[in-house]
Amino acid sequence: MSRRANLLSPWLRLVERPTLSRLANAPVERLRRRFALQAKLYFRPPRGTRITETTLAGLRALEIGPESRTRLLYLHGGAYGIGSPETHCGLVGRMTARTGLRAVVPDYPLAPEHPFPAAPEAVFQLYREISKDGPVILMGDSAGGGLALALLGMICAAGLMQPVASLVLSPWTDLTLSGESIETNGPRDVVLPRNQIAVARDGYLGPADPTDPRASPLFADFSGAGPVHVWVGSTEILRDDSRRIVERLVSQGVDAYLTEEHDLPHVWPLFPGWLLPEAEETLDQMAEVVAALA
Hints:
Layout (H helix, E strand, L loop, with lengths): L2 H21 L4 H15 L8 E6 L2 E6 L6 E5 L13 H11 L2 E5 L11 H13 L5 E6 L1 H16 L6 E5 L11 H4 L12 H9 L22 E6 L5 H13 L4 E6 L15 H17 L1
Parallel strand pairs: 3-4, 3-5, 5-6, 6-7, 7-8
Antiparallel strand pairs: 1-2, 2-4
């Protein structure tokens, strides 16, 4: 692990995780404003990145990067309640700079205003629309990574054209919260407070069944799916969500690959290289996967 990673992790543990824990019961707008401010300060896109606002399948979206026939469909994280295309345009912009592909980042419906299944239904309609124009690569992080995999299951069930590949970071794949790492990594995860994950889940799901594969892709049927690549940190509370989804995919005949990095924080590629060199290394890995397939 780099020297800067060794400096960043204690700061996240001492400042970020306790703050998230305290703010969990605050008005959701306060959490959204805080995340948006952090993104403006730390998660900026590369200078000169082309960003345009558009509407696709009834959703506001940002299109990031140059024109291309193959497009990245990126679903942002934020526990289904916070985050936006703007908070993730830095990460996505760094990815489009590496791949030369245009990304679509939708402003999908968030809870509590739009609880489950609004998000998966909205991104499913978006995928139907943009996949008519050319190949799509699915991407996402955290809840957005889980949403990307839920979308992949919906695509399989509907018999639609498969994505070229799906690449996800630290995905939340099991809303039953049965992964052992939620407890075993609870003291070690420097970002996510384990005592708030059920609060986030309940705010999104309400009375819905957490085993619904649109909510928990761990229970989806992925027969016929294209390749899936997953990255996760070894000390994340969601580590087992990644391990188990890859096991399930492989058991269903899908080419699925897990990269587990030692002691890196939740969705570490959000951070720019000046804060965390490993973020750029992982984006390089992801771009290599895209280059081999697109």
